[in-house]
Structures are given as structure tokens and as C-alpha cells.
Amino acid sequence: MPGSIGYVIWFLGALLEAAVVVCAIYKGVFRRYLCLNLYMLFSFLVSVGRFQVLNLYGLQSPEYAYCYFYSDALLTIFLYLALITLYLHVFDEMNVDKYVRLAAVLLLAGTALFSYGVVQQSSHRIYSHFFFELSQNLYFVGLILTYVLWGAILKLRETRAQLIQLVLSLGIYFSAFAATYALRNMYPNLQFIWASIAPILGCLLPLSWAYAFVRLSPEARVAPARLAVVPR
Predict the structure, then answer these.
(1) What pTM, to 2 d.p., does this model score?
(2) How many CA atoms lie within 13 A of 207 on its CB side?
(3) Residue 53 and residue 175: Cα distance in Å, rounded?
């Protein structure tokens, strides 16, 4: 992400991530969506850490590459866990918490094993390649799980506006990054374009979550007629 515009986008993304946490605390929903807010806080700290490594070693250095791929994998895992907590919110009246958590752990472990298997077949078996593969696969898993969750929201007639906003924005975010990974694999010669798109996409999720915390009350409801009609 070289150039002054890239630094501006980077700074804006970090500022929005911090704003999400501040807005959540101000509106009293930090604990309600604890994992989501911890993800944003961790993402902000990662942005600061990456900037420090970039200043010390440079954009093309192996130190920055390792820092980026390792931290990206950790962020993706954290975001996956945040998605699972949204499942718990949607199914909070059905007493299925332990089953959701067990399924989440098994799915995460299965994705990690699959990613490791892919790397084992590669001629360059290095840890950074594994973490890249894990991040890529988790984005696709997250995309599928988000749409499954949206289907459950429609089926259960969930009307909490703030929760719906959080789920929809996460679905758009996963969709955008999954598409970026797919295009990166199809057109590897356009790495500069994909590297430029990622920071822009990274600003959308905190912006949407900040809006959800500031403008939507936790108990605010949307009219059922505004949701898609799902036949029983």
C-alpha cells in the first residue's frame, strides 16, 4: 500500500476501528458485543504494529511480509469468532450455545487442517504460505456462515435492527474479501490492484459497525414486512 493515498486510507481505517470501540463504550454495548469490539481493538493495534514494522524495515522487507501475513491470519480467526458470537445472539432463546461453540471449533480446526494439507502439497512449504491459505479459506467459510446466519434471521423473524445491521455488514465484508482472494488467484499479475483494494474494503466494516452502534438502539426493531418473506 505505497504512496500518500495509501497512508491516508490506512490511517482512516485505523481511526474507524478505534471509533467503533469508542462508540460501543459510549452507547453501552461494549459488553453486549464483546468479541466484535475486541476484534476492532485488536485490529487497531495490529494496524499500529504494522506501521511500526513498515517504518523500520520497509514495504518490501521479509519482516513486513511475515508481520502482515501472521497478523492477517490472527485477525481472520478473531473475526470468525466474532461471527460465531452473532450466531449466539440470534439463537439466544434456543439454548444451543454449546452446540454452536462445538461446531465452530470443529469447523475452524477442519479449515486449518485443510489449509495445512494444501500447503503440504506445495513446493514452498513455509509458514507464511500456510497463514495466507488459512486466511483465504476462513474468508470463504465466513462468507458461507454469514449467509446461513442471514437465512436463520429470516426464518426466525429476527427484527433487532442493530443485530441485523451487524450481520449484513459482515456478510458484505466477507463477500468482498472472498471475491478479492478469488480474483487474486485468477489474476496473480495484478497484485498491486488487490493490495490497493484491501485497505479500502477494510474501512467499510468499522464504518458500518460504528453506524450500527451510534444510530441504532440495541432494542430497536425493524418492521417484519421489510424483511424477505420466508415460507414456513
Answers:
(1) 0.85
(2) 11
(3) 29
> At 145, is the secondary structure helix, strand, or coil?
helix
Residue 201, domain extent: 4-226
Classify residue 32 as left (phi > 0), alpha (psi -120 to 50) or beta: alpha
Strand, helix or coil for residue 159: coil
Q: Are 197 and 179 in contact (CB under 8 A)?
A: no
29 in a domain, yes or no? yes
The neighbouring-strand residues paired with 221 are 160
C-alpha cell at 153: 434471521
Residue 160's beta-bridge partner residues? 221
133-167 confidence digits (pLDDT tens): 788 888 888 889 999 999 989 888 888 999 999 99
pLDDT, one tens digit per residue, over 212-227 is 999 998 888 886 555 5
With a CB cutoff of 8 Å and minimum separation 6, the contacts of 214 are 23, 27
Q: Any idea what the CATH number is for the domain that residue 178 is in?
A: 1.20.1070
